[in-house]
Amino acid sequence: MPSEFELIARYFTRPTQHTRLGVGDDGALVSPTPAMELVVSTDMLVAGTHFLPDADAEAVGWKSLAVNVSDLAAMGAQPRWALLAAALPDADELWIAAFAEGFFACAQTFGIDVIGGDTTRGPMNFCVTIFGEVPPGQALLRSGARPGDEIWVSGTPGRAALGLAHLQGRCQLGEAALADCLTALARPQPRLALGLGLRGLASAAIDVSDGLLADLGHILGSSKVSAALQFERLPDTAWRYCPDQALAQDCLLAGGDDYELVFTAPVGAHARVATLAQSLGLALTCIGQIADGAPGKLVLLDREQKPIAAHHHGFDHFA
Ligand code: ADP
Ligand code: MG
């Protein structure tokens, strides 16, 4: 069995692009770009909680870093460096090699240097700390939404949750829908280009890790505003994919793990957001509007602008 140090050398040490000193010493040395602000975030993936115990190792590796990239995307920051603290139950080298492939594929895709970490024996767990840069004052915060701003969502949320529901036997998806949903679950695509493009355009942003309504709720809470969502404007992919319409709605509104961005922008920026969507080749859908009602209050409106009482618990928190 390889030692801890052999594992680190074999699987977690790769050349860096913009780092003075990476893996191998007691600490890494980096030179932040002068006059940029550092954005720092950390996220943990625990076996059994964030991924199924039999999940594909390469996908777990990709996702461990991708969810961290997503946090920086939501801040409008360019990711630069990451650290990986890994607990592994045993040194299953095939598994670790596949994990590292996925992890470094994500690092390469987003221009991230992996500069250190920690490797210990224990119940499987991956904790990544990521550092990124943003021009001073340009970070996208949760607290900037203002009454009148429009609410936008990227992509087609609900797919990751539908994929999980299928794996758990709670629904039966068709072949094409299943493939799409399982990709969304296993290999989320952090919306980094979108986050960077929203600098100076969005008033607030968050990535959807816990569900559309719950995460939009965080913007409302931080910004001390309310919101109205137009039910029929929501991206309808989940409903088209899943015959069980109640489950589809639950996945769309309360399903986590999609890593799309929800953001707000002034009405005057509508055309610029639409242009950004086109240049990125990414659907950006305007789904509602911020208001000055009770802070945190979120209503879903039907075509006649009547409130909809959604029945699943994810929505009850906001009813
Ligand atoms: P120390 O005992 O001084 O904390 P370690 O023996 O834990 O150092 O790690 C040796 C070097 O390998 C350090 O530079 C550390 O950052 C790096 N490292 C350890 N585990 C990982 C990992 N999973 N991925 C990337 N780098 C790692
Ligand atoms: Mg250590």
Concise overview:
The protein has 319 residues and is an alpha+beta fold. It is built from eleven helices and ten strands. The strands form two sheets. The chain has a six-stranded mixed beta sheet, with helices on both faces. The protein has a four-stranded mixed beta sheet with strand order 1-4-2-3.
Description:
With 319 residues, the chain is an alpha+beta fold. The protein folds into two domains: 4-134, PurM-like, N-terminal domain (60s Ribosomal Protein L30, Chain: A); 150-301, Phosphoribosyl-aminoimidazole Synthetase, Chain A, domain 2. Helices cover 35% and strands 22% of the residues. The chain contains eleven helices and ten strands. The strands form two sheets. A six-stranded mixed sheet has the order 6-8-5-9-7-10, with helices on both faces. It has a four-stranded mixed sheet with strand order 1-4-2-3. The longest helix has 19 residues, at 57-75. It is globular. The N and C termini lie far apart (55 Å). Adenosine-5'-diphosphate is lined by residues 8, 12, 23-26, 84, 86, 114, 116-119.
From the spread of the alpha carbons, the general shape counts as: globular
Briefly note the CATH topology name of the largest domain: Phosphoribosyl-aminoimidazole Synthetase, Chain A, domain 2
Please identify the top-level CATH class of the largest domain: Alpha Beta
**Gyration radius over CA:** 20 Å
**Amino- and carboxy-terminal Cα gap:** 55 Å
